[in-house]
Fold this sequence. Notes:
Layout: H1 2-6, E1 14-17, E2 26-29, E3 44-50, E4 55-61, H2 71-82, E5 99-106, E6 115-120, E7 123-128, E8 131-137, H3 140-156, H4 162-169, H5 183-191, H6 193-202, E9 206-208, H7 216-222, H8 242-249, H9 254-259, H10 270-273, H11 278-289, E10 291-292, H12 294-301, H13 307-317, E11 318-321, E12 324-327, H14 329-332, H15 346-362, E13 365-366, H16 368-375, H17 379-389, E14 390-393, E15 397-400, H18 406-411, H19 413-434, H20 438-441, H21 447-451, H22 458-489, H23 494-497, E16 529-530, E17 533-534, H24 535-538, H25 549-570, E18 572-574, H26 575-587, H27 601-610, E19 613-616, H28 628-631, E20 633-636, H29 644-654, H30 662-673, H31 679-686
Parallel strand pairs: 1-7, 2-8
Antiparallel strand pairs: 3-4, 3-9, 4-5, 5-8, 6-7, 10-12, 11-12, 13-15, 14-15, 16-17, 18-20, 19-20
Helix pairs in contact: 2-3, 11-13, 15-17, 15-19, 25-27, 29-30
Protein name: RPC5 polymerase
Pfam families: RPC5, RPC5_C
Region (Disordered): 146-169
Amino acid sequence: MANEEDDPIIQEIDVFLARSLLEKLYLFQYPIRPASMTYDDVTHLSAKIKPKQQKVELEMAIDTLNPNYCRSKGEQIALNVDGTCTDETSTYSSKLMDKQTFCSSQAASNVSRYAAAVYKKGELHLTPLHGILQLRPSFTYLDKADAKHREREAANEGGDSSQDEAEDDVKQITVRFSRPETEQARQRRVQSYEFLQKRQAEEHWVHLHYYGLKDSRSEHERQYLFSQGHGLAENTELIKSPSEYLMMLMPPSVEEENEKPMAPSNVLSMAQLRTLPLADQIKILMKNVKVMPFANLLSLLGPGADTTAVLRCVQQVALLVQGNWVVKSDVLYPKDTSSPHSGVPAEVLCRGRDFVMWKFTQDRWVVRKEVAAVTKLCPEDVKDFLEHMSVARINKGWEFMLPYDEDFVKKHPDIVQRQQMLWMGIQAKLEKVYNLLKEHLTPKKQEAQSAHPLLVSGEQRVNMAKAKVKQNYGQLEKELQKQKAEMKSNDTSAKTDVPNVPNICIKEEPVSVEEPMDTSAHEGLNNGLVNGLHTAQGSLDPVNGHLPGGCIDRVAQELKAFVSSTFKKQFVLTLSELKRLFNLHLASLPPGHTLFSGISDKMLQDMVLDTGCKQILVPFPPQTAASPDELKVYALWEAGDTYDQHRQVLLEIFSKNYRVRRNVIQSQLSQECGEDLNKQEVDRVLK
Length: 687
């Protein structure tokens, strides 16, 4: 109330709504006028408009007598555009750039809240605007100059003879018949940018007459900005309550959203997506992404999405494959549609795609030729199916694009069971349609290896080494069992007989002191084995709880030799990688080797430090998913070569940051070592 008293009403003004120029009044916004052009004195040579597009072109004369006008440049532009000859088609007939064309663009899509106001004798008259257009200079004359330049170059190359012209008249014509256009193809064509541009170009220009500011016709038209009658019947729109009046001046933004142009079919607006119901949001997302983990789907739907509702909706439009959701075939290929490649109806496409999805529920790999042989579809359709949910791998086939989602499978076992029942029904239908054989129903495990016997991958080599380890340990177990039986037959204690076991050293360490090496990552070495011995064997009584002195020395020598040779080859290793290499080394040793006595993590790490290596405390990010053994990094500090100093500088750099740019490394090496290294030397140090 105090503020209202300090700000009293000085004058009340009557507001009137003028309707004479309704849907005819436009506001033109001109650019900043140059010094050589004054719009008050300039002559408008021509004007034209496209009413549907609200597009205007104005042609204005430039004051060439203005002292700020550069005459030489105007002559040069006219010469470039029209050349030396002048005729009716010339843009600048005076051989001087004496006019400028302005083209318009819409400044606002919704102008219903804007009006032109005229104040006269204590009355304010408002006329709603039909459009707001911004005028910008048009440089189409430059395109014309380029065309003239290309014509002159073509003419300078020399014209063809009459015989050549006669030969050019005879041309071979290729006749092509277009396929019948489907409804989906027609909609895509109508929404394309090229089609919209073509429709805009087809609208004819309507030429206008320009009248100056002081012309009598202009003065007559300006009178229409005033309300013709002051009666209540003329201004019923303005007799409103304050809230209704404000609503008229500032309408809700929903009207603008309804008038926004539709985005292309391949563009997904998350702002528009959030306004749809949950089921439609999930359907649109799955149709665009095609394969998605459930966690990603929840993140796209927003933090307020209900997990139960999302699960209920996603099962209507997608199927579970390897813990991930894949969009259903009938969503991608609705009824009454056909393949754009072969014209096959949607029902056949859905069966073929369901077969591909079912194959991925059985195995991570699918062979394209096998799918084509079963479904009898063209290669393009089969490739589309596979690209929806998999990635091509050279010499292997098509691999499912996402890893197996164990988290979802563990959290929602009821959903997984329901999806398995659905897949059993789909499998029964596919068996009837395609007459599937047993070889199609069971995943092929060893075919990839037998098909390419010459190409042995690293994983296959590890599996072979694991098999060899099992065989060696089986022989070792038989020997120990035989020796154990002999010891039981003797009257003496088993403890005194243990050192007589040939080539076998048994170690039993208390768990509280040192944990045995973790080999759980290697399945072949985790079959009841602890550090190279079966748990039953590890229970043998040690000699006073320790290994004999000679056995300890031999184990240390063998372990030191392995660590030294390994780090001289690779220089930098994580504890996880070192343990993996050590297990492979054990697999290559004969039964009864001293290293089978059991090597703990602490023993291995101590031996690494004793051989001249150092632990590099790399500052990995806290959110890393690496295991603790992968975060322990060891490096050979001195190898005895010429790059020891460079290697030490590089290791110190990585002890401060886990990610460093190459130019920073090169400059730091040059600064610390006092010499400029070339690219090959830096590459060798980094390698």
